[in-house]
């Protein structure tokens, strides 16, 4: 007997040659509401042909060329130009495959190539081949991680990855966790779980049953912390912002003052968000001192290590997160420093009492039946606030299996060494000035064009320097040569923030970066 898909293809291919009036050897059509239900509507041969034509385009244009340092990082077009080029309108009828293949080429051509060695714009970069294949597999299988019965492989790989990450954090008694759709959601999980830990009645009775809750975070934290407070009904006014020192680290003494302030106001302080690797400066809060304060005041300690968590893989650099083992929860994004590919975000708790399950469970009977024929403890979906959930851990697991813990450590060590090289080069070059010595791979610096180099520091000087980075960024984008981010920070004028992650990046690329910025800005 022919396989099912072969039978379907035979049915489809013979459809045109057989008369509907005389369906020789076939059952007569079944009509329901005017729709013919015999056979598949998808032409299997045509679908296979399309995939065989499309995949080489993806490999050539989105993988090989997109990671070639000799190619452009981007091919800039304005929004209006791009709308015309892409022909975005959706119509009644479909297009022929040649047109759709051209749509694929255009989508790749006009997208930013984040795997390019000269893409330094965000806290993710590069392209790992093993992670990429992992993504191909999960996109093709298209599972959802709520129950073992529909995602057995991917639930087990998530469990294995979380177990290893928890071990690396240093929770000797273990813990629990789940992968989330972004570090912002992980931080929201932290706020929700911390609140439930302090006030378990909130799940049933809601906000009206709660005292005024206050949480704490540094002025350098990620904006997702205040968003979580707004989303969960805590209120942004109840997020007490702790001053940071000149390097961007939370000042513990100021933190404790704010805790006492909240108590004096009659509020209930319940958690602190400490940051391990701030977005702009790459600063690490003093976790040991923060943990001491949390223990004195019975506060939940969450560490946002979405960016800086990668340093835990390095024996040389894990000191940056000294004390993280004392945290109650941790957010860590392997898609950043470890290059697991977007998105790959773990939220973990130092808890063995099923806190995640108790906080988020809704016990949907159509998914989480307790009388299944296998161990239902593997049906982990009820720990999540989501129903459908992508298998984001699999690509990280496959990459980790391929290069090992040692390979991940080497990536981290190389990235930090490259950041040190760039910082030293900046010190040597006229017209470049470090904002501060880098602690991580965030290298922050100003470019000062020749016209300003003899100008004394002062308000007018910094006003003119402030205008340099946006112009240089515009020029590099339109040229497509590279991408580097910039921003103001506090009272500091716009400066470049160079992020180093990918092992594809070479010393020559660092030299090119500085040469190119000078070339693009020397006339300003």
Automatic annotation (TrEMBL):
Pfam families in the record: Pyridoxal_deC
Top-level division of the source organism's lineage: Eukaryota
Polar residues: bias regions: 1-17
GO biological process: carboxylic acid metabolic process
Gene3D superfamilies: 3.90.1150.170, Type I PLP-dependent aspartate aminotransferase-like (Major domain)
Record key words, sorted: Decarboxylase, Lyase, Pyridoxal phosphate
Residue numbers carrying N6-(pyridoxal phosphate)lysine: 336
One Gene Ontology MF term: carboxy-lyase activity
Cofactor or coenzyme needed: pyridoxal 5'-phosphate
One GO CC term on file: cytoplasm
Keyword Glycoprotein among record annotations: no
Entry keyword Lyase: yes
Region of interest called Disordered, as start-end residue ranges on this chain: 1-32
Assembly behavior: Homodimer.
PANTHER family: ACIDIC AMINO ACID DECARBOXYLASE GADL1, GLUTAMATE DECARBOXYLASE-RELATED
Family, similarity comment: Belongs to the group II decarboxylase family.
Protein name, as recorded: Glutamate decarboxylase like 1
Taxonomic lineage from the root: Eukaryota, Metazoa, Chordata, Craniata, Vertebrata
């Amino acid at each position: 007997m022919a396989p099912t898909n072969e039978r379907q293809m035979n049915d489809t291919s013979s459809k045109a040659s057989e008369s509907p009036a005389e369906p020789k050897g076939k059952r007569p059509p079944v009509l329901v509401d005017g729709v013919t239900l015999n056979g598949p509507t998808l032409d299997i041969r045509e679908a296979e042909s399309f995939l065989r034509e499309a995949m080489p385009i993806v490999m050539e244009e989105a993988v090989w060329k997109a990671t070639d340092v000799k190619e452009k990082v981007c091919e800039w077009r304005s929004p209006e130009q791009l709308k015309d080029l892409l022909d975005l309108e959706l119509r009644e009828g479909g297009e022929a495959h040649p047109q759709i293949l051209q749509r694929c080429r255009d989508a790749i051509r006009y997208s930013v190539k984040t795997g390019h060695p000269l893409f330094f714009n965000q806290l993710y970069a590069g392209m790992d081949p093993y992670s990429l294949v992992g993504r191909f597999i999960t996109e093709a299988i298209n599972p959802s991680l709520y129950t073992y019965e529909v995602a057995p492989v991917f639930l087990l790989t998530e469990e294995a990855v979380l177990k290893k990450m928890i071990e690396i954090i240093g929770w000797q008694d273990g813990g629990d966790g789940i992968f989330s759709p972004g570090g912002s959601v992980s931080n929201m999980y932290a706020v929700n779980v911390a609140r439930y830990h302090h006030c378990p009645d909130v799940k049933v009775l809601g906000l009206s049953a709660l005292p005024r809750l206050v949480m704490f975070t540094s002025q350098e934290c990620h904006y997702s912390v205040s968003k979580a407070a707004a989303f969960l009904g805590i209120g942004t006014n109840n997020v007490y912002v702790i001053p940071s020192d000149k390097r961007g680290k939370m000042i513990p003494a100021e933190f404790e003052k704010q805790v006492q302030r909240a108590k004096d106001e009659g509020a209930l302080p319940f958690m602190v968000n400490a940051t391990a690797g701030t977005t702009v400066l790459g600063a690490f809060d003093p976790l040991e001192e923060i943990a001491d304060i949390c223990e004195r005041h019975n506060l939940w300690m969450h560490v946002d290590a979405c960016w800086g968590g990668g340093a835990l893989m390095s024996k040389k650099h894990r000191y940056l997160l000294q004390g993280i083992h004392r945290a109650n929860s941790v957010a860590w994004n392997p898609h950043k420093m470890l290059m697991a590919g977007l998105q790959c975000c773990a939220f973990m708790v130092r808890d063995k009492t099923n806190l995640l399950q108790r906080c988020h469970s809704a016990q949907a009977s159509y998914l989480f039946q307790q009388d299944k024929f296998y161990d239902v403890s593997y049906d982990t979906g009820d720990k999540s606030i989501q129903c459908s959930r992508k298998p984001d851990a699999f690509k990280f697991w496959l990459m980790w299996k391929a290069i090992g813990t040692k390979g991940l450590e080497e990536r981290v060590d190389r990235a930090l060494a490259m950041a040190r090289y760039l910082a030293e080069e900046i010190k040597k070059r006229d017209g470049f000035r470090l904002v501060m010595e880098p602690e991580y791979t965030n290298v922050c610096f100003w470019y000062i064009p020749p016209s300003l180099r003899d100008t004394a520091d002062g308000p007018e000087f910094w006003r003119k320097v402030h205008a340099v980075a946006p112009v240089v960024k515009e020029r590099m984008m339109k040229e497509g040569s590279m991408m580097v981010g910039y921003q103001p920070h506090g009272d500091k004028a716009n400066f470049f923030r160079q992020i180093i992650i990918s092992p594809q990046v070479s010393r020559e690329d660092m030299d090119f970066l500085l040469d190119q910025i000078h070339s693009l800005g020397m006339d300003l």
